[in-house]
């Protein structure tokens, strides 16, 4: 059972990294590091934590980029 779970987690990590791309890796990398450490200490689930952290980190980075773009548009409109 454990090997199947590890394979599924690795497959999710590969799909996530393929979808993120290299230009947008900053949020994913930071989140993966934090999530991996947290997962390790929360029951030796570092891979699951890293995948989850990558997704959350990318989401936060995307949200911040959208906010910056909205602020730039607002400044141009004035």
TrEMBL record:
Signal peptide: 1-25
UniProt protein name: Glycine zipper 2TM domain protein
Highest taxon listed in the record's lineage: Bacteria
Organism placement in taxonomy: Bacteria, Pseudomonadati, Pseudomonadota, Betaproteobacteria, Burkholderiales
Keyword list, A-Z: Membrane, Signal, Transmembrane, Transmembrane helix
Membrane spanning stretches: 41-61
Protein source organism: Paraburkholderia solitsugae
């Amino acid at each position: 059972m454990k090997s199947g779970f590890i394979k599924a987690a690795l497959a999710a990590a590969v799909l996530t990294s393929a979808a993120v791309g290299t230009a947008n890796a900053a949020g994913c990398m930071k989140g993966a590091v934090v999530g991996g450490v947290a997962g390790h200490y929360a029951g030796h689930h570092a891979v699951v934590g890293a995948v989850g952290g990558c997704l959350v980190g990318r989401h936060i980075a995307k949200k911040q980029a959208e906010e910056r773009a909205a602020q730039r548009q607002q400044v141009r409109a004035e």
